[in-house]
Structure formats: structure tokens, C-alpha cells
Amino acid sequence: MVIAGERRQNLGLKRALVVPLMAMMRATNGVRESVRRIHGHAALGACMVGNLQASVVVLGAPEVRGTGQIEMGEDVLLYPGIYLETQEEAWLKIGRGVVISRGAHLVAMAGITVGDGTMIGEYVSVRDANHDRQDGVAMRNAGHTAKAIRIGKEVWIGRGVTVLGGVTIGDGATVGANAVVTKNVAAGTVVAGVPAVPLRGRD
Question: By CB neighbour count within 10 A (0-12 exposed, 13-18 middle, 19+ buried), where does 177 fall?
Fold first, then answer.
């Protein structure tokens, strides 16, 4: 009985605190969202070598590692949880109107270009480098091989896709969810699978 009474008392206290707090949060939701976007924009811009356009919408500050050699066009939309990394002389060049969804990873050691209007789905991995192996050397110290990646304009890359180094994806191509892209994709082609293979030309 004592425990039940304490629980009722705790629930009453919780209710008394939560209800006005919820009302306050509802009333300030728009302001808080604006502050989040402004903070995300400033945090990203501070990590970049290049200028960040004011028209870029940052819904959550990406994690930026490496040299910060990132170029970004106007009207880009970035969802929360994105990871961007550039190393050595590589640049990450993101065109105008690109959408990058939650959890995407773009890692450039040779260079990655994303064309205007392309959409990159959730948890996509675009990495232009692969680990090397050397006898008697721990893999983490064995270096890597990097080949630039080019993603064309108006490409649609579905959720969970992996794009490997040296690949070019042509303008207007579509890559189905969870595909692993190991070879070039012709413009206007729909590909899917592991490894990704053409299904048809886009209607």
C-alpha cells in the first residue's frame, strides 16, 4: 500500500510538471527548430574550407572530420546524423539542390562529386578508399587505395546503398535500396542488387 501510494504521488508530480512543460515546448517549437537549423548551419560552416551558402538547410549539424575540403551548392538539404570526411588532397563537392538523408556517410580520400539535384537516401555509404593489406603489417597501418567517385545529376540513391571507389553513376540513374555499386552505372539506368546490376532503362 505504501509503494502504491508513493507511485500515485510520483505520477501526480510528474503530471504536474510535464503538462505545463509540454505546453511551453509546443508554443516554442518553431523558435527551437529555427535555432537548431541556425546552429547546425553555423557548426557546418565553421568546419568547411569553402563558404556555406545561406540557402543550405541543415536540420542537424553533420559530423565533419579531416581537412574540411567541402564545397556545397545552393539549396542543399541535409538531414541529421550525416558524416562527412575528407583526407589528404581530396575534396567533397556537393552540387545545387542535393538532398542527403539521415545517417549517410561520405568519405573522400581521392575525391567525391555529387551532381545537382541528386537525392541520397538514409544510411548510404559513399567511400572512395579501401584498406590495403601488407604482410607483417597491421591492417590499420597498411594504408589504403583510393579512386574518385562521381555521382551525376538527378541521381536517386536508395536507402542503405554502398558506393565503392572508382565508380561513376550517370545522370538520372536510380540505385535500388541496399545495393552495392562496384561498377559504373550508365545514365538513366535502374540498378539493384549485390553487386548492383542493371534492371532496365528509366522510363
Answer: middle
Written as one string, the DSSP assignment of 13-27 is HHHHHHHHHHHHHHH
Rounded CA separation 59/151 (Å): 23
**The pLDDT of residue 2 is above 70:** no
Query: What is the CB neighbour count within 10 angstroms for residue 19?
Result: 10
- For the annotated catalytic residues, the residue numbers are 131
Compute the distance between CA of residue 181 and CA of residue 167 in angstroms, rounded to an integer: 7
SS3 category, 32: helix
Strands 149-151 and 112-114: parallel
pLDDT-based confidence at residue 19 (cuts at 50, 70, 90): confident
Length in residues, the chain: 203
Give the span between the Cα atoms of 194 and 203, in whole angstroms: 23
pLDDT one-digit tens code per residue, 173-189: 999 999 999 999 999 99
Nearest-CA neighbor of 78 among 128, 37, 33, 39?
37
Res. 202: pLDDT tops 70: no
Q: Could you tell me if 175 and 169 are in contact, meaning their C-beta atoms sit under 8 angstroms apart?
A: yes
Sheet-wide strand order for 125-127: 63-66, 83-86, 105-108, 125-127, 162-163, 180-181
- What does the mean pLDDT of the chain come to? 90
For 74-121, what is each residue's pLDDT tens digit? 999 999 999 999 999 999 999 999 999 999 999 999 999 999 999 999
Q: Which DSSP symbol is given to 154?
A: T
